[in-house]
Amino acid sequence: MAALALSNSAHAKTILIFGDSLSAGYGIARNDSWGNLLQTSLQKTHPLYEVVNASISGETTSGGVRRIGKALNEHHPAVVILELGANDALRGTPLSETEKNLNGIILQAKKANAKVLLLGIQIPPNYGLDYTKRFSALYPKLAKKHKVSLVSFMLKDIPPEQFQADNLHPNAVAQPQILKNVLPNLTPLLIAK
Description:
Elements: H1 8-11, E1 14-19, H2 21-24, H3 34-45, E2 50-53, H4 61-75, E3 79-83, H5 86-90, H6 95-111, E4 115-119, H7 129-146, E5 149-151, H8 175-186
Parallel strand pairs: 1-2, 1-3, 3-4, 4-5
Helix pairs in contact: 3-8, 4-6, 6-7
């Protein structure tokens, strides 16, 4: 509660990226990750902001809901970029649980006066058409429910050759495209000066 009493200026400088390996820069140099590219881009356009990447490879929504409170208290973000759910799908987590956990993370971020940008994920069709469609629909559903900004698919327009050998993680060449997908929805959440 004491953290919430801080002045708005203390909150207005941090963008917290809260995700999994897709945001942690798995398999590539840290400097090449889209989160690091975001910091470089914002230094030119929105120099008040510092990007803190609290993403962890292998993270699930259940892990995220357990640690979001600590991250919010530590960083007091103005904006939370939430990118979780892919590992839930890979593990066959029931969609109701993934939805409940994402819901909880969004609610905690909003309670801490942070704006939320939700990054949508899509999964390969080999998980079954029904599950794949319901999983993809989860992100717009949550964005609408909580009135938060949404990037419908963070990996949009990344060709197959720009993925690592596992066919799951984008390589370094793909990172600018991820940033390009994120920026149009992030920029309206930032204060101009």
